[in-house]
């Protein structure tokens, strides 16, 4: 319930009421409850939920300007997801969370770290690796496909300044995936992603 309320209050990725601090407080309350559940549970689902909650807190801290707090929480989310995937390497729910964790980690970045650029690239590559394993079992899953395309494009943005050919390869692959998604689902946001793909490819040719 706290997670749902938090999303409505001011989560920047949701339609919200503009209360970003309220969202953080709600996500933090949810996290404390998730910790209590995890302490008395051996169910891997509860561990995944805990990782997700760490991610939600970290992402909102980043949105609110607390970069160091965000880094700490996303690192904890990744640690939980990586531990879970060792025991269940093909579990789609865990793979999905792990891929999202890596993607969020890349977007949050690494404040005051001289090797931040390389670490961000590595995060996106790990996210893509998780996406690809997930898609082997769910080749037509719209959410998984869309997440894969987003990660491809995001890595392309990071690479474009230093390696435009690699960026172009990522953008073209994202376009291919988004074409498939737009054929499966009529949602306007997937058509919008196609338009963005064409724009990013054009920007590389222009450069």
Average residue-wise pLDDT: 96
Overall morphology: globular
How many helical elements?
9
Strand runs, count: 0
Report the radius of gyration as a whole number of Å.
Answer: 18 Å
The ordered string of helix (H) and strand (E) elements is: HHHHHHHHH
Largest sheet, in brief, is: none
Cα distance, first to last residue? 48 Å
Q: Runs with pLDDT <50, length 5+?
A: none
* Secondary structure: helix percent: over 70%
Estimated share of beta-strand residues: under 5%
- Given helix and strand content, the structural type is mainly alpha
Structure characterization notes:
The chain is mostly helical. Helix content is 81%, strand content 0%. The protein is built from nine helices and no strands. The chain has helices spanning 2-10, 20-39, 44-63, 67-87, 92-108, 116-137, 142-160, 164-184, 188-206. It is globular and about 55 Å long. The termini are far apart. The mean pLDDT is 96.
